[in-house]
Design goal:
5 helices; 14 strands; Hypothetical protein YwqG fold; YwqG-like_sf; alpha+beta
Length: about 260
Amino acid sequence: MDFRESLAEIEALCAEHVPGAAGPQLAAMALPGLMLDPVDDGHLATGRCRLGGPALLEPGTPWPECDGIPLSLLAVLDTDPLAGWLGDRLPCRPGLLNFFYLDPDLDYDDYRHIDLFEDARVWRVIPADPARAESVAAPAGARSFAATPLRASPIPTLPDQWDPAVDGLDFGPDRDLPPCLEVGEVCGAWTERYGDGLHRAFGWPSLLQGPLQAEGHVHLLQIDGFDRWTFGDAGVLYYTIPEDALRAGDFTRVVAEGQCC
């Protein structure tokens, strides 16, 4: 499915649930995204996309640490098979993206000063050339999760009802309901059509509690709980990057942010 072909369905969905000019305005915000579904057979995976397992790093790339504590690898995203669907939403060709985070469940009695929510040292996204990348096992001190292949399914995405982007929609002078109510109807219909899996890449994120702090960023990946890992109490972890950093392929400026139920 070409992204442009999916827009007619999005426009019809928005027209049905959102009144006035706000319906077309919301439909115009649609972005190409991907649902990431775990699969048992690696042959069904999209490229080398997976949760857990060893990192895929270029020779000589050090394993990321925070104050001497090795981070844990949560996922690898193989962007090359995704580029055709994402189009200009992926302005660079980063190849493989390794997503790391400091595991909050390990015993770090000597490192209680580290803020797992605000300290930018506790996450890292490291790109790697697929032709040069080597499998690197997690060092001692990092948690190693079972490798679970992921199949990436192209989906059109819309902003969540809690996203600040919907606040500017024009519902007309006679509408006094908050935008989140109408947009929530579309979100419900969208979920019924495409599913509610919370492993996703690019497009608009699916929010649990409210807007992300990093406004104006491109959404890279959101990870739901898997294996023995979860963010807080049944939470979701979001990785985003400023638009100019993505164009430049500068993944040192990625921001990670979690939300819990």
